[in-house]
Design goal:
Elements lengths: L1 E2 L8 E2 L16 E7 L3 H7 L5 E2 L5 E4 L5 E5 L10 E8 L2 H11 L3 E6 L2 E5 L6 E6 L12 E3 L7 H10 L3 E9 L7 E7 L5 E3 L1
Parallel strand pairs: 3-6, 7-10, 11-14
Antiparallel strand pairs: 1-2, 3-7, 4-5, 5-6, 8-9, 9-10, 12-13, 13-14
Length: 198
């Protein structure tokens, strides 16, 4: 797990090494990660790491595996997570808003044209949904996003998704983890197949 703080208060990314897999084919479902930082550009320059600078000052880095990181030239506040949002590409923005806002109760922080930023914590971290004019292609390298929710809310989420005839990839289940407390999860997929673990 990598991030700018503990996963109980910050967004973290889980990096997984899959034995024997030499490469992945990236799809178009994941647009990237947006981060606030005044230091990334100078560190990239010091390490001769290639980057692009857009007209608005945003720096674009491509990780070795091809994932994009969009760096806003701003400092994060002392109690602010520098990771601001991830970008999910979608085929129909209106349908995505109905699912994530209408069903899963994310708040719309901003919406304009083909983009909308939704969040559970008033924009401290969010998901920006960007409508693209081509089918979603997961290829081989897609992931999922996990949300921590109160234990008592999980059954009602399960019921809500079933009632609205939306996709449940893994029904509400308790998973035993040796040496740790058992966890209970439900795994959902939205209209474009973006997976969320709740």
């Amino acid at each position: 797990m990598v991030g700018y703080g503990d996963e109980s208060t910050h967004f973290v990314i889980e990096l997984t090494y899959n034995y024997g897999v030499k490469s992945y084919k990236l799809g178009n479902e994941f647009g990237g990660v947006t981060i606030k930082s005044k230091d990334v550009k100078s560190r990239a320059e010091a390490n001769n790491y290639p980057f692009e600078q857009q007209a608005d000052g945003t720096i674009v880095l491509s990780a070795p595996d091809g994932y994009k990181f969009f760096i806003l030239n701003e400092g994060a506040g002392p109690d602010e997570d520098p990771i601001k949002y991830i970008i999910y590409n979608v085929t129909n923005l209106e349908n995505s808003i109905k699912y994530w806002n209408g069903l899963l109760n994310q708040k719309i922080i901003r919406q304009n044209g083909t983009k909308a930023l939704l969040s559970y914590n008033d924009g401290k971290f969010g998901i920006e949904f960007t409508q693209i004019n081509e089918p979603i292609d997961r290829a081989q390298a897609f992931g999922r996003i996990a949300f921590g929710v109160p234990y008592d809310l999980q059954p009602s989420i399960d019921e809500l998704i079933q009632k609205n005839k939306k996709t449940i990839l893994t029904p509400l289940v308790t998973i035993d983890t040796p040496g740790k407390a058992s966890v209970r999860v439900i795994i959902l997929a939205d209209n474009d197949g973006h997976v969320s673990l709740i």
